[in-house]
Write a structure and sequence with these properties.
By secondary structure, the protein is an all-beta fold. The chain has no helices and 31 strands.
């Protein structure tokens, strides 16, 4: 099977399909699809014209779960209450269209696979966002993974490049360990968990302040930027061989810094 286009009032369930192109919509139920290889979600080939057709997949009132056996390309928008996308072993998730989970979005690329978007206009929308991979990248240089989460978790031993803006105007950044981190929040950015990178740690609070409420450790260089203030909780450590810090009228107040 080259393509499937599934529409239902209730649940849509596909055990395992070899379809390359998939569209699935449920009016009031859940969507659960497993594929055996590379999958393009949100597109199929019209059997009459033999042309590619792109459309949105959804389960607006339920859960949408797609588990691919290989790489996963999202080329049509997806909307759901709880959205879960997973690529196969050592395969990448490519986001070429917006994905939305009104409650949550979970993106998982296994092994060396990455989670990347193909344009700067693409966004991952969900109150709770979890992005994970083994050693692949989350986002890419010049193409940060864009989100609007109020509760964000990202996991990889590789590189992370992300941009976030949510309605609350702030984000609490959880603990992370990996190669390099480049994170921008449109609003206040509060480091609540320890950040450890063998490479660069770059933290930016656009239109807000940056608060270091836990240890921040970089093996090469730390870059801290805020339009407001940059402050540090007493007793926490900022370690980096090279440190660059730039703040607005709120100034910079770092109490425990180790550079050399």
């Amino acid at each position: 099977t080259t393509a499937i286009n599934l529409q239902a009032a209730g649940d849509v369930t596909v055990g395992t399909t070899s379809a390359l192109l998939v569209i699935a919509n449920s009016a009031s139920g859940n969507v659960n699809i497993t594929t055996s290889g590379f999958t393009a979600l949100g597109g199929y080939v019209d059997p009459t014209t033999h042309e590619a057709v792109f459309g949105q997949s959804s389960s607006a009132d339920g859960n949408f779960t797609l588990t691919a056996g290989g790489g996963l390309l999202v080329n049509g928008g997806i909307q759901s209450k709880n959205l879960t996308l997973q690529s196969g072993a050592n395969s990448t998730i490519f986001l070429g269209a917006d994905v939305k989970g009104s409650n949550s979005v979970t993106l998982t690329a296994q092994g060396t696979g990455s989670v990347v978007q193909l344009t700067n206009s693409t966004k991952v929308s969900g109150q709770t966002l979890t992005v994970s991979t083994g050693s692949g990248n989350i986002g890419a240089s010049g193409l940060a993974l864009r989100s609007d989460a109020t509760d964000l978790t990202f996991t990889t031993s590789g590189n992370v490049t992300m941009w976030n803006q949510n309605p609350n105007g702030f984000l609490d950044l959880k603990a992370w360990t990996g190669t390099s981190l480049n994170f921008t929040e449109e609003g206040d950015l509060n480091v609540r968990g320890q950040l450890f990178a063998t490479g660069v740690v770059s933290l930016t609070a656009n239109t807000g302040s940056l608060f270091l409420g836990n240890n921040v450790v970089s093996g090469t260089m730390a870059v801290l930027q805020a339009t407001g203030s940059i402050t540090q909780r007493s007793g926490d450590l900022l370690f980096a061989p090279i440190l660059f810090a730039s703040a607005g009228s709120g100034g910079i107040n770092l109490s425990k810094v180790n550079t050399h």
